[in-house]
Amino acid sequence: MKSSLPKRRLIPRWRPVSKTLETTEVESIVDQPSKKLAFDRDVFNDTVDSWRSNPTAGHLGDVIAFSPDEELRPAIARIVDEAVQKGLQASDTQRSIFAEVREEVADPDDTHLGGRLATQARVAQLRKELLVAPDNVLALLDMAQLQLAAGKQAAAKRYLFTALNLAPNGRIVLRTAARFFVHLGEFDRAHSLISRHPAAKDDPWLMASEISLAQVADRESTLLNPGRRLLRSSKRPARQLAELAGAVANREMIDGSLKEARGLLRLALEQPTDNVVAQAMIDGRLMGLNMEEPAIRRAVTQSAEALLLQAWMAGDEVASEAHALRWHAEEPFSSRPLQFLTTLYSLQGEYGKALDWVQRGLIADPSDAGLISNLSFSQAALGEEAAAEATMKRSRLVGQTWLEPYFKATEGLVALRRGQFDLAKSLYREAEQTFLKAGQDSTAALCLAHYAKFAAECGAPDAEALKMEAEDRVRKAPTIDGIIILDKLSKRPVSIPLEQEEQRRLSQWVFDPISNTLTQRLGVTARNAPGLVVEPGMPPKRKH
Fold first, then answer.
1. What domains does the chain contain, in order, with CATH numbers?
2. Residue 85, SS3 per DSSP
3. What is the Cα–Cα distance from 122 to 434, expressed in whole angstroms?
4. Which SUPFAM superfamilies does the record match to this protein (predicted)?
5. CB-CB contact of 279 with 250 (8 Å)
6. pLDDT grade, residue 91 (50/70/90)?
7. Distance CA 64, CA 78 (A)
8. Less CB within 10 Å around the terminal CB: N or C of the chain?
9. For residues 210 and 201, what is the distance between their CA atoms, to the nearest angstrom?
């Protein structure tokens, strides 16, 4: 049985530097940043209309001139494609610009040969840049990420430590180094790097990192209370406080202070980072917040991970796969997007594809427990029983005990493949009971659904009864995974609604009929509060 994703924490992300430079993480906490360039939408639409009426290279160039506005680039890319496909007039220079626009808009994807060649070309380019300027910190960070993704931890460490020596006070460098140590499983070292740095006491980005890393390292945070005070008193822009508010909100939620956590998460979502949005997609639902509000939907588009979570909750397998691939391209060393992909392909019965992706992930992270669990499951599902048993044996030798119920279920699959139906039943039921005792009812139901699916495939005598039992259990503890398995098992869509808790809004619109005004009231509402309320204000005083 495949494993679920581990708990998410708001630890620093390690994107390509070009992506990080587009975020507020690079802003000074003292100086006010410049605003993003934005063009008038009406003027842009008029320019597009002019090109459609007279599709010359000159008019097309007028459309391309709007490309510095990031929000207009997808629309420009579509027009570019339309022009190229129709063979309309375009100069060589414009075609070159068109290619750059499409490249910036298109989802990155290294799943095909072209993507892998592009990665190799990027490594070669970085080598040239570092030969000319060996103190280029940003190039060093990108090179470290690509080396780590290729499984070259020692090389990645050299590049990263060089960057750290060159810029020991750089926020991006410090947060990247902490993320590197988390990847290696050196949680205490990651936490110490941030907590002992003098800048952490004043920088909300480093404070957020310290609070989240303390959770991962199972340590007491030294900056949690200072972080709370800063959020109450700081007059910094919301974008500078987003990750700190998100980190403290997560800590409050874990401690059971849901009211405080909701308020902090609302603050974090005023001007969130991609990291905050992805965390909020999980924490917000656990706290009963409405994550479908327009402002949040706009913020979700910043994050491939958040888009993946949104698509998955909607049951959109195609979009989920696309967003997972994009997430993997942004963080090719991370096991999380690959754990999801291997889960998705396994649910779809694409076990060979799942195995390929697991093996790719283990290059970058050979000791990741979730990937190892998914490896043994994929091997067993493909009928490679001996390989699956060898994988589980190696994992047990290094003490990854929390995977034991998953391995029991996988051993049950191996027994089914060998026709040992009584043994399979014993192993699957043991795994199921372990999950139930741990309070993981939905995982236990998923385990039973897997058992029913493979029992049917292997011709087990009690397959039909298992199918009925699995459907009943998944109805009581529904998950997207379980519903997909039942769909495949029944060969028809199974209608099982996911549990919907009463939700709270992060803001409300208030209409005052006396003054004829509509204002937004920020703050977490009561459960199931309406989006618009009518509250008459005081009538204006009459002048005497």
1. 17-33+114-310 (1.25.40.10), 41-105 (no CATH), 331-490 (1.25.40), 505-544 (no CATH)
2. helix
3. 47
4. TPR-like
5. yes
6. low
7. 11
8. C
9. 10
